[in-house]
Amino acid sequence: MNQQRGTTVEPEDGCGCKVERVAEQYELSRIDEVLVSRWLGEGSERYSLRRLETHFNERVLESAMAETPIPMLDGDVTHLHERLCDGSVSAGQRAETENYLKRAGVNVERVRNDFVSHQTIHTHLRECLGATRDRTADPESRVEKADKTVLSLQNRMRLVTEETVERLKRADVVTLDSFDVYVDTTVVCGECDRSLSFPELLDRGNCRCQTDGRSADSPSVERQRNGEKAGYVE
Fold first, then answer.
1. Which residue has the higher pLDDT, 151 or 211?
2. Which helix (H) or strand (E) holds 195?
3. Rounded to whole angstroms, how far apart are CA atoms 141 and 160?
4. pTM of the predicted structure, to 2 decimals
């Protein structure tokens, strides 16, 4: 497939990748056009791959909710998606959201399995749609490099922790039949004390208080607003 910088080449036949399969299953109309346009910044700001991932997965969730009795208000899908996927959400809050969706008839497990990663979005854009960006003027290259750097450190920390726990098990210092190690990096805003995962910070480019105003989007006000609107959070 011939590719030109900053352009797209339409494939003659369907590519058959996960993005295409999921888009067809959930009837996401014009999703390829939207993904390419926003990635290239045609007529608007450029979207990062992680932001495109969020957009695509929110469309999937919205489609899955369309046939349920859940009242759809502005911001509901975004809020529910964050509750399902945001690493800063507690296990209890995530379980509460899952139960809320299940009671309404959403197959949460299937929907989550149909979510795609930003890497999958990138592959679809480049290999299936032939889209490219000029990396010499692309700030996303710095974002990708930063993401890989921190991810590499997290993986190293995970491996060191696993090896340490194994040594402690062999020395009978700790007792575990099996275990998993998870390493996440959280950034806390010094202005509003909001916690963001490192990938979320890369995706947003700032804390919400920088754009929405601290008082309007403080954690306590947000919890009150969401609780009144959705009726399923504390």
1. 151
2. strand 195-197
3. 29
4. 0.60
Farthest-apart Cα atoms in the chain, separation: 62
List CB contacts of 126: < 8 A, sequence separation 6 or more. 3, 132
Residue 187 in 3-state DSSP?
Answer: strand
Q: In the prediction, which pLDDT does 43 show?
A: 75
Average the pLDDT over 4-23 and give the result: 66
Q: What is the mean pLDDT of the chain?
A: 80
Residue 207 DSSP one-character state: -
Angle at the Cα of 49 from the Cα atoms of 65 and 44, rounded to 5 degrees: 90
User: Mean pLDDT across the stretch 123-137?
Assistant: 81
Q: Which two tokens stand for residue 184?
A: 């996440």
SS3 215: coil
DSSP state string for 109-150: HHHHHH---HHHHHHIIIIIS-----GGG-THHHHHHHHHHH
Six-digit token string for 102:
């299940």
Distance CA 57, CA 100 (A): 18
| High-pLDDT (> 70) share of the chain, % | 80
DSSP 216: T
Say if residue 13's pLDDT is above 80: no
C-alpha closest to that of 19 among 6, 35, 8: 35
Cα 2 from chain centre: 30
Taking a C-beta distance cutoff of 8 angstroms, is the pair 140, 203 a contact?
A: no
CA distance 64 to 67: 7
Tell which wins on pLDDT, 57 or 144: 57
* Residue 196 bridge partners (DSSP): 187
